[in-house]
Specification:
- The protein contains one helix and no strands.
- It is an all-alpha fold.
């Protein structure tokens, strides 16, 4: 479920700090999105998020 907030630079910085720490030593080859849930397929957005909306 989207958090309904805009991602702030500190949110990105926190992810970078985590990835640079020893706590992330086993994280390899991952695509990590810091977006507060925006872009996830949800029942609210349905096909609108996937770009597969049919236009009549």
């Amino acid at each position: 479920m989207p958090l309904n907030e805009v991602v702030k630079p500190v949110d990105i910085a926190n992810m970078v700090a985590f990835l640079a720490s020893d706590k992330a030593r086993y994280v390899t080859g991952e695509l990590i999105t810091v977006a507060g849930g925006f872009g996830l397929p949800t029942p609210i957005y349905g096909d609108a998020m996937s770009g597969s909306i049919k236009k009549d």
